[in-house]
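step=encode ok
step=design start
structure_in=
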């Protein structure tokens, strides 16, 4: 917030640069901040914290992330599904004032050439700008070299290193860090209405302080995956039972086919299991169980007496890790997800300390 206040003040004093680069890990709110910054520039009482009630603020809030504000252009490869943005041929939705809501194509340059319609500012936000290829970056460079008055370009990325040096040298960098766990938890509770404290706490840890990632994990059903792994590792459920259950878990994955969705579920589950294995392996080497991301899984596996159990487990953990990595590779190689998940659960079941009691 302090950063945004500073940028609004700079805009007021006419010393804000024409291009900002919001860098930092995925999911920490860079894109939301970019939108909020733009809203504060457009606000009738701005530049400053948007009042939320004036005409420009209301127009900004309508229309979702792309907003209905005529002076804002959001280029979002996540939204269009495009792998690479070609800057001269960017598809984006222009919300027309008519009800027809016509889809139009425009270029960033074309957009910036126009005079601001409503405010003194024209703002372009390019989300995940590292997806631009070299040609696109070079085209952008021209815009950066000859900026029109009142234009602001905000580039957002978690991979600053991929951008051309010539771009980086022309932008003002703003770095975002992951949030403190307590703050991340608060934000998660605010974003995911109806989430309980315990889940918010776990999401904050699983996402390592990135509310954006936490929201994705929530959508994808990470909590259900967690329950399943916990049941397996504690010996309450068998590998076969668990691997069948995977396909009944709730969770949304965006993919065109069922097979593609199954692959995404398998990938998510395997990445989760590998993260747990990393924790486990650290604890086998003597690290404190309470200090890990997956403390609760470690405890469901080894009970309260964990240090004693974990001490001798190291070699077995390495074998399981190798098998899981192999499974992870198979998913990318398009092996049937059911088969891969079944193998992964079988591998994980080798870690069960208190196996299922037959006949109970
Ligand atoms: Zn306002």
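sequence_out=
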């Amino acid at each position: 917030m302090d950063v945004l206040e500073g940028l609004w003040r700079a805009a007021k004093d006419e010393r804000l640069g024409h291009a900002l680069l919001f860098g930092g890990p995925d999911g920490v709110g860079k894109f939301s901040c970019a939108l909020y910054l733009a809203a504060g520039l457009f606000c009738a009482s701005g530049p400053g914290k948007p009042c939320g009630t004036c005409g420009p603020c209301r127009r900004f809030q309508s229309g979702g992330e792309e907003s209905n504000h005529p002076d804002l252009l959001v280029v979002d490869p996540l939204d269009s599904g495009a792998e690479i943005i070609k800057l001269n041929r960017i598809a984006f939705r222009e919300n027309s004032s008519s009800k027809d809501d016509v889809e139009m194509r425009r270029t960033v340059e074309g957009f910036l050439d126009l005079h601001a319609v409503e405010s003194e500012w024209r703002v372009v936000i390019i989300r995940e700008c590292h997806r631009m290829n070299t040609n696109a970056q070079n085209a952008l460079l021209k815009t950066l070299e000859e900026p029109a008055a009142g234009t602001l370009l905000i580039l957002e990325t978690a991979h600053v290193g991929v951008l051309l040096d010539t771009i980086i040298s022309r932008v003002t960098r703003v770095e975002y860090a992951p949030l403190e766990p307590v703050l991340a938890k608060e934000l998660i509770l605010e974003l995911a209405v109806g989430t309980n404290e315990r889940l918010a706490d776990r999401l904050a840890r699983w996402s390592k302080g990135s509310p954006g990632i936490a929201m994705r994990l929530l959508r994808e059903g990470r909590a259900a995956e967690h329950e399943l792994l916990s049941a397996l590792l504690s010996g309450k459920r068998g590998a076969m039972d668990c691997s069948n259950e995977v396909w009944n878990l709730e969770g949304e994955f965006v993919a065109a086919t069922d097979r593609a969705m199954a692959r995404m579920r398998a990938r998510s589950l395997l990445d989760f299991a590998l993260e747990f294995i990393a924790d486990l392996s650290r604890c086998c080497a003597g690290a404190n169980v309470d200090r890990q991301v997956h403390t609760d899984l470690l405890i469901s596996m080894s009970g309260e007496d964990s240090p004693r159990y974990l001490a001798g487990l190291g070699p077995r953990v390495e074998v399981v890790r190798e098998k899981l990595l192999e499974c992870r590779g198979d998913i990318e190689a398009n092996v049937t997800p059911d088969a891969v998940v079944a193998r992964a659960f079988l591998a994980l079941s080798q870690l069960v300390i208190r196996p299922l009691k037959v006949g109970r």
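step=design ok
step=annotate ok -> The chain has 17 helices and seven strands.
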